[in-house]
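Q: I have two molecules that I believe assemble together. Could you output structure tokens for the complex as a whole instead of separate predictions?
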Amino acid sequence: MDFELSEPEKKFRDEVRAWLKANKPRENGSAEEGQKVFIESRRAWQKKLYEAGYVGITWPKEYGGRGAGFMEQLIFNDEMIVAQAPEPINVIGLGMGGPVVITHGTDQQKKRYLAPLLSAEEIWCQGFSEPNAGSDLSGVQTRAEDKGDHYLVNGQKVWTTLAHVAKWCMLVARERKEANPRDGLTYLLVDMESPGVEVRPLVQITGDAEFNEIFFKDVKVPKSQILGEAGNGWAVAMTTLLHERGTLGMALATRAQITAAELADHARKLGRGSDPLVRQKIAMYTIEARALQLNGYRAVTAMKRNGIPGPEGSILKLMWSELNQRMAETAVDVAGPAGQVGDGGGWKYQFLRSRANTIEAGTSEVLRNILAERVLGLPRSR
Amino acid sequence: MDFAFSEEQEMLRRSARDFLAKECSPKVVRKLMDESDAYDPALWSKIAGLGWTALGIPEEYGGVGSFLDLIVVLEEAGRALLPGPYFATMGLGVPALIEAGTEAQKKSALGAIASGDARATLAFTEPSARWDASGVALTAKPGGGGWQLDGVKLFVPDAQNADYMVVAARTRGEGEDGISLFLVEGKPKGMSVHQLQTLDMTRRWSEVRFDGVELNADSLMGAPHKAWPALRRALEWATAALCAEMIGGAQKVLETSTDYAKTRHQFGKPIGIYQAVSHKLADMLVLSESGRSATYYAAWAVDADAPDRSLASSMAKAYVSDAYRKVAGDGIQVHGGIGFTWEHDMHLYFKRAKASEVTLGDATYHRELVAQALDL
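A: Yes, here they are, computed for all two components at once.
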């Protein structure tokens, strides 16, 4: 057991630290300053990070990654916290799209998709959920009809983050009906600029439209855009979700640390830092955020040995989502009625937005099922 | 960074688990609970024979093995609910001796502990039950070429079997100034030990009274009045060690409860199929795993003397105190009626969890220390 950084790791850390200090955007774009400005500033920021070699740190060099290890990724994440730097725009692509292409894609696909994803030239979104397929992904009704050299896609996806600016959609569609609903699914990469794709914003309880609905009407998708094998989309989808909860889990651990520190600041500024109950709560959240991060470190050590994230990633997402809700609630509470007026010191939005955390990317109920069944080996409930 | 134990440490864990399964079965634990002092000298000799009493002691004093090796063994000891003075000796006495002892004290006491010939403990808390420096009121006054101790220590773990007792005393002032440590050997005149009826009968607490106890000058550990920093460091070692025992127990509760949920049938199905049960077990897993992460990091930070060693040990104790209690309580719930019987072992873990929760400061106490570290 050792948490000391090696000499090359220290060198990398110092390099990242200096670079972030010199290049971090002055304003942290917030979702409230207008979607378009926000998207473009985050896109430019990712491009800058990419050109410096800090995007896709663990991805192979030949596809535009840095070819470095998980340690470098962790060091980079930590430095992003210290610098309070904004996240890159292409979160879905970086957390899921890229890893799934690296795992299941052909050489040609890797060459085609990975570099523009890293540079944020092409933004990715995830077309899994449907009005009638939420937690139960095998219930997807979007159809992919085999037309020889291409598929014809018809159907609807929902809750799609970044769909309005995305170039590529990771789509799970039904090619044929099978006795086991997990069979017969096909995983396609759909060009969002194709004729027949319509994106409608979905207004959330925050008043923002960060999610979308996507409608597909006779959308032609060339067969070169199948990821994995036709009819075997379930396996590809599962890899995607594993990365969603694993790799993304580490990013969430980073985010939890930032939020806990911001909450402490918030309480200090309001003069509530001496209230024993507030002190207890903030200390508790800070400890949980740290435990979450340490769980991630242990998962990374395990990942170094086994190559892929285990179901332990579900612990990170589960913990983070519930912790984030409690932190946002406390932030609003410590401000009293003022927490609900105006922008509530920036926390009013988080208070509402965090309600989605326990639903998106696997509901807490689904994640507890995963832990119960895959980690503890309890019998399946369905 | 490498956040896992080495292959050798994993081997040590396996052999410790095998040994304890054989030599410290629940039957043995229950037998020792009923004995007057929860201590079995024969078991202690076997433990010493395995080298467990030398772990974490520097080589020059007869030690073999690192503090992290000790953490591995303590985790297994907690899993088996090993009764008696192993934690008191290795988790409390040894760190206090290492941090504060004079060369001569370390040579004799650590040497005797490493070889298995002696047991030790730390007498810190008093009737105020405080874990900070202000809680130390027992007085030590110079006299007769040595020191005279007067006062009461309360909740002293396994005092009845301690050949060496490190005693925190006040030699002047208040708060952190004026704390001195003394190494008491055996039972000098005027010192009396009264075992308390404790919730967790696998580990005894005692009231230790000092009525004009006269100690030689060389019983003072280090310089007078200035022992608090060393004592605080010793408490940090102790905290990481206790957390290791606690997560070992929590893991055992989780495994036992999971197994039960797979085999116990109601309404024609194993109860683990019902999400009211399986989600409870999933939450127990999250608590147990997170407590483990916090504990391992604290153990490393303390051992490596990292700048955040104090914060890390407080974070671990705050988290694990709540987590173990919750896991042990839910373990009873998952078992239903059988879990509430004397015959089933769940209550032994529940009681150990509660006793460990308040030892070395509970979650509330350590969260306050974390809040201070955050400059709140």
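A: One point stands out. Chain A has three domains: 7-118, 124-231, 236-375.
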